[in-house]
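During the reporting period the student researcher (J.K.) took over the structure-prediction task from the postdoctoral fellow and processed the backlog of single-chain submissions. One of the processed entries is reproduced below for the supervisory committee.
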Amino acid sequence: MAKRLFITGGTGYLGGALLRIAAGRYELGASYLSHRPPTSPHIDWTPLDVRDPQAVRAALMRFRPDIVIHTAFVQYGPDLMAITAEGSGHVATATTEIHARLIHMSSDVIFAGERADPYTEDDEPDPISTYGESKAVAEHLVAAANPAAAIVRTSLIYGFDPIDRQTQFVLEIAAGDRPDRLFSDEYRCPIYVDDLATALLELGETDYTGVLHIAGAEQVSRYEMGTLLVQALGHDPAKIGAGLSANLPVRRPRNCTLDIGRARGLLHTRLRGLREVIAELSGRSIA
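J.K. obtained the following C-alpha cells:
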C-alpha cells in the first residue's frame, strides 16, 4: 500500500511541483486557502486555514498522512506572523499527535546576510526582515512541537513550466514593462523547483531530524540570476538594470549563501546550480 502524503499549500508553486512529481507514488492530499483547485481523482483537496489549530488537526486527522510537507506561507501582510510562524506551529503540533513525518519549509533569509562565508545548519538565525523573523519563529515553534521534524532552509525557487513569479517579474523588466532594477550585491543559491521537490520527497523517506539546507549549488546575484534566466528563455536582457541594495534606506540580507554539504552527503538528488540547470534543459527548449 502506498504511503499517504499531505502537502499544505498545495496550490502554491512548490506545492504544485510536489504533487506533480509525487503522483503515482503516494496517496495524495493537499490543502488550499481560498480558491479551490480543479477536482482531481488523484488528489484529496481540503480547504485549510493554518491559523486555526482545530482545523489543522481535523484536516490531518481525517486524511491520516504518513508524511506532511508544510509549504503554506505568506511573505508579507498583516497575517504574516499568524500564518507563516504560528500556523507552522499548529501543523507541527498536529503531526506529532498523529505520528506523521513532518518536513517544514524555511528560508535563507532567516540570516542577516552580512558575512562572506556560506551559512551552515549550525549557524543561529539573525533575521533583519519581518519575513525572516516570521520564518525564524516558525523554526522555533516547529522544533518545540515536533522534535522529529526536518526543517529545510532553501533559497529562491525558479522553474519554467509554469514560469515562477520571480522569473515572470524579470521578463517584464526585460520587456520594458517595469522600470525596476535587480540587485547586483545580493547573493542567493537559487534552486530549480523540480530539484527541490524531488529532494524533499527523498528526505521524507529518511529519519533525518533538525535543520537541513537544500538549495542550488551555485551562488549568484539577483541581477545575474535574472539575466541568465531571461537569456535562457530566449529574450534580450539588455533592458535589465543593476542596482545596489546597500544604497536603500532599509537593510536587506545581502549574502544568504547556504552551505549544502550536509544535504549532498545525505541525499541522492542532485542539487544543481543555475547554469547547470539551464545548460541541461536548453536541449529541451525551455523558451
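The committee noted the following: The longest strand covers residues 101-107.
J.K. will present the remaining backlog at the next meeting.
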